[in-house]
Amino acid sequence: MKTQKRIGILTSGGDCPGLNAVIRAVVSHATLTYDWEVIGIPYATQGLLEQKAIALSRHGLDLRGIDPLLSMGGTILGSINKGNTLEHADEIIASYQALALDALIAVGGDGSLSILNDLACRGNWQLVAVPKTIDNDVALTERSIGFDTAVNTITDALNRLTFTAASHDRVMIVEVMGRSTGHLALHAGIAGGADVILLPEIPYSIQGVCRTLAELRDRWAHKFAIVVVAEGAKTTNEVLSCDPALPSLTPQCGIGQYIAEQISRYSTMPIDTRVSVLGHIQRGGIPSALDRLVATTFGKAAVDLVAQGQLRQMVAWQNGRVVAVPLAEVLAHSPLPVDPNGYLVKTAQALGIYVGDVLA
Fold this sequence. Notes:
With about 350 residues, the chain is of the alpha/beta class. About 40% of the residues lie in helices and about 15% in strands.
């Protein structure tokens, strides 16, 4: 009779710093506390489809006694964020049984977790979820793994760009990730001293941006500025297109370049602009201390939920502690947008930052 549990762990969706710290915590706690067997599923559902498994042990994760996983970015299990997983749902569901899993811990964002939850419901899997995304838009948790490091990375870039902007009297436009939510742009923009922050949740007008830049120069004698724009930012009334002959709902050349061209077009004074697109730099790097802490506590809590039989749950960070919340409820409220009238938006406005045309 089988007495030892066999649990799997996978990382799905876009990578981010802190994933390896989750893996480390799951393996250490499951093996040391419960004497379970832990296997890693490489490349998420693709690995399940191909019935691939990597045996994970606490001492198999170190190098000559040195444990690198706390400080290693990315994921040693690999990840995927493309393809049509549900086309192979029956095969993936069968693979869970073929690998003799008693439970699966899935680390992902709301998109990945939605797919995995659907598979779990159809296949009667024992599933526990761990939220990760630099967008920080998973509902019912104040923090997702990777967010803090990404904010720090963008803030560091803004610090560097501020000095060169001041040296040359330029407006630096920094495009950051955030197609549907602006948490990353808002947090990093405030922390990095931005003058303008443009978010998907709050429509902006190019006239409002130009008024802010003019006031900085005319009233405060600031000849430079920092503009942070989320890639999904939207205008109040303009048609987004870098070519007037090709109108579209999104700019053909990237939102940062589009805004630079619109500033040049509508500003009443000459403005020298430069555009920096941070791109996948935001996903990389060594996880911050906070992301390591959150990842470690999430991994430990996920194993405990499996032990307690609390399944189809997600671990979450609320009021400074880790709690369990129903995964179905999380998915029903995700992705979680920035509140246009929330405390951080009001803080930005109080500091004189233009964040779009927020209604009172």
